[in-house]
Amino acid sequence: MNHPVKECIQKLGLTHRAFVVLYDISWERFRSCLYGYTDSIPRAITGVMVQHGYDEQEAQRQYRQWRKWKAEQELASSPAAVLEGGQ
């Protein structure tokens, strides 16, 4: 499962640092989005994505799907899930 923001940055050929500096995005907000801590992709980031041909609604849908997948992965690898799976 791909994170749409990471995908965009890779397509632009930028590092994370270059992305936030070039587009004047808060580092904290950017990191929060990369880790899936935000409910949606922040407006400043979607603005950049739209400038580069991304559809905002589709990017948001993919992000929500990625967040759900990531949470399921974390749950599956938690110590409690491992213990329950072994019984």
**Radius of gyration based on Cα positions:** 15 Å
Class derived from helix and strand content = mainly alpha
Q: Which range best describes the helical content: under 10%, 10-25%, 25-40%, 40-55%, 55-70% or over 70%?
A: over 70%
Instruction: Give the DSSP E fraction (strand runs of 2 or more residues).
Output: under 5%
Main pleated-sheet profile: none
Distance from first to last alpha carbon: 29 Å
Poorly predicted residue ranges: none
**Number of DSSP helical runs:** 6
Looking at the chains present, what oligomeric state does this protein adopt? single chain
Tell how many strands the DSSP assignment holds.
0
The global form is elongated
Q: How are helices and strands ordered from N to C?
A: HHHHHH
pLDDT average, as an integer?
Answer: 93
Short description:
The protein is mainly α and 87 residues long.
